Amino acid sequence: MRAAEQQAGPAGTRWSARLHVVTGKGGTGKSSVAAALALALAADGRRTLLVEVEGRQGIAQLFGTDPLPYSERHLADAPGGGEVRALAVDAEEALLEYLDMFYKLGAAGRALRKLGAIDFATTIAPGLRDVLLTGKVKEATTRTAGQRRTYDAVVLDAPPTGRIGRFLNVTAETARLAKVGPIKTQSEGVAALLRSPMTAVHVVTLLEEMPVQETVDAIADLTSLGFGVGRVIVNATRPPIPAGRVVQADELRAGLLAAGLPADERTVTGLATEARDQAVRRELEDSLRTDLVELGVPLTELPLLPDGVDRAGLDRLAEALVRAD
């Protein structure tokens, strides 16, 4: 099946992958964007799974629910009868599941947990943790029930840009080091999915210098490792200011008087200074936006939510993602 056919539905071929990996520098709102994308892709009777792997319970906080367990559960309804389910992947639980699935060590695995052996294993082999996390995501993405996929799309709230390349590439490294057995087979399967047209990595950023630079670096890293970059998602953008428009002190004074507000010299001067600072800031944002456009990756802009990210805000972001060019 071609990538463009895998995710038709409300967002058409603009979000054509089945697994959407969402990363971004800390503080850019990547978890909010991941949640909004899951809502967008679940519209019109579809089912999506929203997964987190960092143990922060950020999804539960966004939706105002109890902490997520290591099991898929209903999270939210989407327009048109769709459903978003959620899962918080825990490395320890994933290892127990893995031992039971491939080695039939269900009871023995639980005994190992009591002895602390699982914590020991994931500590001395940090890459093992990421293999387990991505393996669970792969299982959910490819799972079928009858003749159809369990989920129309899976959205992964992934680690930040500084760690995303290493996180996604660990399965390929594990497959290279493991010679035979289930670990090698599992790692090869995960690595193949992550590098296939079924997977797209989206990078969330703000129009600020450090997040944009991390976005540029992350895309270069992901591309060199062979991962497919989907979109750059610019979060919290503001409406543009007309080019060359600078508010003058006389206009400010007249506006304040018309509104019945104080129009003394100190107030007018302070507002004029702030207006100039804003104009300089918008020029910088325009320059950073140009840097992102030059990456040659589709660009999607999401609006700033003045009241913060609540469920209504997530729905607004989801609508913007559906309408993305």
UniProtKB/TrEMBL annotation:
Domain of life per record: Bacteria
Coiled-coil positions: none
Residue ranges occupied by any ArsA/GET3 Anion-transporting ATPase-like domain in the UniProt entry: 20-176
InterPro entries: ArsA/GET3_ATPase-like (IPR025723), ATPase_ArsA/GET3 (IPR016300), P-loop_NTPase (IPR027417)
GO MF: ATP binding; ATP hydrolysis activity
Organism this protein belongs to: Micromonospora endolithica
Pfam families: ArsA_ATPase
Protein name as annotated: ArsA family ATPase
Signal peptide limits: none
SUPFAM superfamilies the record matches: P-loop containing nucleoside triphosphate hydrolases
